[in-house]
Specification:
Number of helices of chain A: 0
Oligomer: heterodimer
Largest interface: A-B, 23 and 26 residues
Helix content of chain B: under 10%
Number of helices of chain B: 0
Order of helices and strands of chain B: EEEEEEEEEEE
Shape of chain A: globular
Helix content of chain A: under 10%
Radius of gyration of chain A: 13 Å
Largest sheet of chain A: 6 strands, mixed
Strand content of chain A: over 45%
Shape of chain B: globular
Distance between the termini of chain B: 34 Å
Structural class of chain B: mainly beta
Distance between the termini of chain A: 36 Å
Strand content of chain B: over 45%
Order of helices and strands of chain A: EEEEEEEEEEE
Number of strands of chain A: 11
Number of strands of chain B: 11
Structural class of chain A: mainly beta
Largest sheet of chain B: 7 strands, mixed
């Protein structure tokens, strides 16, 4: 079964607005990563947050992590049409397997 | 200068055939992966190799056999293809030493007729 569940499954906003996507997971983790997937392309790594971190920023991206609630959020500020993509969270359970468990993704549509 | 490249990009074939997908990375990474993404976009790990050694083998039918001739290559051979094998298969790589960000290829879209 999938480790993570993203919410919402789909999100449509206007250019310039902020987009918030949430991810919930089930087991303890070492770190959580967010990836973007453009249509017909592979996943691209956006940001990694470790289990002892609560917030991380990268450009227009802000990620939060709440390990007590087993949840994370990705905020994209001042969205652009080019941000249109699917966004996935992925967790590492720290078992040494070096494999990520991905959520189901949020499909973001940014209208120009 | 593509980092992780997969071939072919599209693969359309008949049920029962045998096919291979090739993957190469030029990032100098030690670890390579195969993932399967189904029609609902769920992405699931299939195999992982570290320095040509198999370290993860999920509950994948043994019709699927990965081969790593060297640490820059991880190929996937599939025997006796079935309708349920239709999916997008992604190769990825990462540095060793804990879980690092993974770099993905653009996927191979496999369609079984």
């Amino acid at each position: 079964s999938q480790q993570g569940e993203e919410d919402p499954q789909a999100l449509s906003i206007q250019e310039g607005e902020n987009a918030t996507m949430n991810c919930s997971y089930k087991t303890s983790i070492n770190n959580l990563q967010w990836y973007r997937q453009n249509s017909g392309r592979g996943l691209v790594h956006l940001i990694l947050i470790r289990s002892n971190e609560r917030e991380k920023h990268s450009g227009r991206l802000r990620v939060t992590l709440d390990t007590s609630k087993k949840s994370s959020s990705l905020l994209i500020t001042a969205s652009r049409a080019a941000d249109t993509a699917s966004y996935f969270c992925a967790t590492d359970a720290g078992t040494g397997r070096r494999a990520l468990t991905f959520g189901s993704g949020t499909r973001l549509q940014v209208q120009p | 200068d593509t980092a992780v490249s997969q071939t072919p990009k599209y693969l359309v074939t008949q049920m029962g055939n045998d096919k291979s997908i090739k993957c190469e990375q030029n990032l100098g990474h030690d670890t390579m992966y195969w993932y399967k993404q189904d029609s609902k976009k769920f992405l699931k790990i299939m195999f992982s190799y570290n320095n040509k050694e198999l370290i993860i083998n999920e509950t994948v039918p043994n019709r699927f056999s990965p081969k790593s001739p060297d640490k820059a290559h991880l190929n996937l051979h599939i025997n006796s293809l079935e309708l349920g094998d239709s999916a997008v298969y992604f190769c990825a790589s990462s540095q060793a030493g804990g879980v690092q960000p993974q770099h993905f290829g653009d996927g191979t879209r496999l369609s079984i007729l």
